[in-house]
């Protein structure tokens, strides 16, 4: 390792623009003091060809002593965002702006980087131009186009170095089952356990680490599916109506139009209703009509929402590896959410969900977590229940408002369902009630929600290799190394024109057959697909809360159409683009909000 102001080895070069022009040898440059930091934009970084080619070296080649460095909050006195970091070049520091998504190593941990070389029998390898980062910037800029390009170049399986990890992307939907059935060799929990601990700040929830013996996946299935789902649906139906008709509209003038951002509206209604459903209420609004208590409770939940949004804003950076102390306000927001969900505070609330009650019991009996770590496992539950449901709700409603034919079909189904259930809409305080069976018998809304999620989902399915093994596909096999990641990116599937005609167009009846029932027959190259719709993942790792999430969105739409008149302020408004910064995490948020207006019907 080199220290002080020694130059970088001559074999390491970089192209750096200073202002508009200069390219220079980074190995010639050192920075004497913090005040001398200049703003640089990294345009291209490459290695000498003799280090970059894929010759079969017998051992990794040590490269320049290059690391990405965590900005020390206390010393620098400013907050790091996801587009700024320190670049340490053997003792010299260069300030980089607009560097895109970055991975940052911890302070003072300088280390050697090495080139991963393809072995015989392994998938084709794309190392990228950037040491350690590899293909991270290209992938982060546009994952779908990047993977399409590599698929065209290499075929249906290839390896990319992304932020120090080697990810084998499997893009043939007929081979997905080959990955999903490899439980003996592939671990689906390791990545999720590590990500949760890193992002939410609790200790490892991997039973092998000794902090807890709880089987989290089993807990979620037990409390989010089966009979437990019925209770959640009932509670959510009541809470949505409380929020829509009392909490939000208590000060509205009857028949007066209210203009608001569509995403803002969905965010507030779904967060408040979902929070009350899972984490209970400070009082029972059916028995206590005290407006001050209602306003106080709502103020606390909306404050929690602001903390949630602040934390969620930097969540992609946390998953990428940046420590949360670099984000002062987000760190504070996460801690405040944890304080609100301490067991001593939850015990004061009424109507806690079975999920939260069981998690509290298991935390207290099976874990060695301290009080704040227990609370942060509840923050993880809160995030999981909201982060994808909110944008999915937005997209479902937005596409309905933009498509009159879809809106007519949806409202007709809602009216028919309410009539069949004997439910009458009124504003006299009597809430609508639809049970799980009735909600499940709404194929038009199902299709609309599926189509909206198909167009906005960018989830990624990960498996980590437990050992070196051979992955057998339909007509070939490949060697996979221990600790490598095998991944599926379902957006490739969702936007495949051979599976979905006009894949970028919203078609509300895409998932309906000729009899207006659920369509499950989708084909590629004349062959029927087992996997054609994967926003919730697949196999044993499929999201255990997916059923509740879809029912929540369906309930939201049913109630909105029943009680309100709604339309877009500008009927010709363009569809907002997808915020790609969250690619790989689930449903993408819109890049901007859309104005809409609503008012209570004259019932």
Automatic annotation (TrEMBL):
Pathway(s) served: Lipid metabolism; bile acid biosynthesis
Binding site for heme: 543
Chain coiled-coil ranges: none
Top-tier EC class: oxidoreductase
Protein name stated in the entry: cholesterol 7alpha-monooxygenase
CDD domains: CYP7A1
Organism in which the protein naturally occurs: Callipepla squamata
Keyword match Oxidoreductase: yes
GO biological process, one term: cholesterol homeostasis
Subcellular location: Endoplasmic reticulum membrane; Microsome membrane
Record's GO cellular component terms: endoplasmic reticulum membrane
Cofactor section: heme
Keywords noted in UniProt: Cholesterol metabolism, Endoplasmic reticulum, Heme, Iron, Lipid metabolism, Membrane, Metal-binding, Microsome, Monooxygenase, Oxidoreductase, Steroid metabolism, Sterol metabolism
